[in-house]
Amino acid sequence: MTERTRLTRLKERAVEDRAALLDFLAGQYVAHLAVVAGDHPVALPVAYALDREGDQLYVHGSVAAGWLREAPGAQVCVTVTSVDGLVLARSGFHHSMNYRSAVVIGAARLVEDEDERARALDLVVDQVVPGRAATLRPPTRKELVATAVLAVPLAEASLKQRTGGVGDEPEDVEAGTWAGVLPLRVVAGEVETDPLTARPVPSDVAARAAELGR
Amino acid sequence: MTERTRLTRLKERAVEDRAALLDFLAGQYVAHLAVVAGDHPVALPVAYALDREGDQLYVHGSVAAGWLREAPGAQVCVTVTSVDGLVLARSGFHHSMNYRSAVVIGAARLVEDEDERARALDLVVDQVVPGRAATLRPPTRKELVATAVLAVPLAEASLKQRTGGVGDEPEDVEAGTWAGVLPLRVVAGEVETDPLTARPVPSDVAARAAELGR
C-alpha cells in the first residue's frame, strides 16, 4: 500500500492483510476499470484475472474498444467490489453497506509477448470457472489479434471492508426505531446448457455452479 | 447520449430506450464513482439515488474522504452494473457475461442548498429501501456538515447490456464442446434485526427483503 491507496478515513475499515486482499481478488470475476479519457474519467465493467505468480491483475478487451486504447502505459484504477449487505440504521446518516472493495492503482502494461498473452487469457477464463481453460481449444490468430490484454501491478493495492451490524447513536437506540442488516449475496441459478450441446454439464462448471449456488 | 457515451463497438448491445436506462438506475443501489485524482483515476463504490424529477443522480459521502474532494466541479463517471450471468462459450474468445451497465459522464455539482441536500439524502435512503426515509428522524446539523452531496446530470448517459445464450463459431459447435450460461442474481438473506431493537421488522424493510429474496 502506498500513499495513493492509503485510506484517508475510517481506517478501521482497511484490511492490512495482504493474503485477505489476494483471496478476495481470487474469488471475484468482475472489476471496474477506470481510465482517463481526455477530459473525463471512464469506469467500465470488465472480466479480470488475478495472477498471483506475477503479483498483478490481467484485464482484457476488444482492440476496437476506444476506452481500452487509452489504457496502455497510462495510470488506471481497477476496483473489485462485493456488496454483502444493506445496513439499515436508525438514522439516514448511519445507513451504510457491508462490502468488500479492492482498489488497485497503477500503470497498465500492454501485454505483447504471445506466451504471456495466452496464459493471461487462460487465467481470465479460469477466474470465472476454475479449470475450464484447459477444456477449450486454443485461441486462433485472428482472435488473438482482436484482443488487447493489459497487466496492472498489485504494488499499489488496498482492501477496504465493512462487516457487522448497525452503528447507531445511543439516543436513536433509546427512541426505539427499528434497525437491522439485510444480508445480500450473489447466487447462481440452474445451469442453462446451450440447446446445441449434446453433452452433460462438465464437472468444472457443475462445481462452480454449486459453489455459487449456495 | 452524446459522443462521449456513444458506444464505439458492439452497437447491438446499446439500449437506446431512455425508460430502460431510468428503470435500471431505479432498481440498483450501488455505483462506482470515478474521479481523476492528480495523475490517476480512482473508482470507488458509493450509494447513489436516481432523481427522476431532476434528471440526475445523487451520490454522497463523508467530507473527510479525500477522493470525494476531487469531484465538485470536475468531470466524473458514475457506473452502475448488474452482472446477470456467466456466458461459458466453446472458446475462450467467446466467453462473456450477461450484464446491464449504465454509464453516466458529467460535471459533478456540489449540492449546497439545504432543502436539496435533505431531499437528496432521503432519496439515497429510499433507493435502498423505498419509503424508509420517512420513518427516520431528520439529520442533525452536525451530520449535515459531515456529509458531501454531489449531483451528476443524466444528460450524458447510456445503458449497455448483454442477454441471452452463447455466440459460438459453427466449427466449435460441431466439435461438440459443452457450452451454456450460468445465470446469477443478488439474493437477500433473512433480515438480521439489531439485538437492541424490540420492534418487529417494518413493512417497508420486509417488502424490500421479499423483493430481493426472490
From TrEMBL, chains A, B:
InterPro entries: Pyridox_Oxase-rel (IPR024747), Split_barrel_FMN-bd (IPR012349)
Gene3D superfamilies in UniProt: Electron Transport, Fmn-binding Protein, Chain A
Pfam families for the chain: Pyridox_ox_2 (PF12900)
Protein's name according to its UniProt entry: Pyridoxamine 5'-phosphate oxidase family protein
Organism of derivation: Nocardioides anomalus
